[in-house]
Write a structure and sequence with these properties.
Length: about 210
Amino acid sequence: MPKAALYNMQGGKIGEVELNEAIFGAEVNKYVLHDTVVNYLANQRQGTQSTKTRTEVSGGGKKPYRQKGTGRARQGSTRAPQWTKGGVALGPKPRDYSYTLNKKVKRLAMVSALSSKAAEDAVLVVDELKMDEAKTKTIAAMLKGMEVSEKALIVTADMEKNVYLSARNIAGVDASYVGMLNVYAILGHDKLVLAKDALQKLEEVYA
């Protein structure tokens, strides 16, 4: 059964916790991880890019020159794509890039992401992660005590505003909670710092 080091808020190691085999010891499915990351990035796209076609650019109402006898190719409008200041042919238009994945695929991707971090010994657990006030120094000291110098994702059970505000000022460190946790965020950080109650909540949801 996989294990993770257990720390206190001061960054001191106080023991170990056993991780659920079904969540942190599963086989990593790279194909599902890839599909999920692509889906996440596609869903983030605004899809607002737009170009004007020949029907939307201004001008071009008059035929530029007569149909025959000039020796040049016939032209009906100065706003056709081949003209300067003409419309764009086959340009992008606003569209929705988002699409959905099956629930089973999402669950498998999350389990694979968590298992990959556990296999790298990149999962750290904090016995209690609550703050009465936002203080970056507190989170920085905790991470320093845990010897976390890489990109880290701090995960709480529920939205902890003070933890979020304290962590966002540290370069490479982000904070989230179980309800907002996603595969892209997990894979994008070197270390996964879980509050103990967040770990329990993950096991309830995905076990």
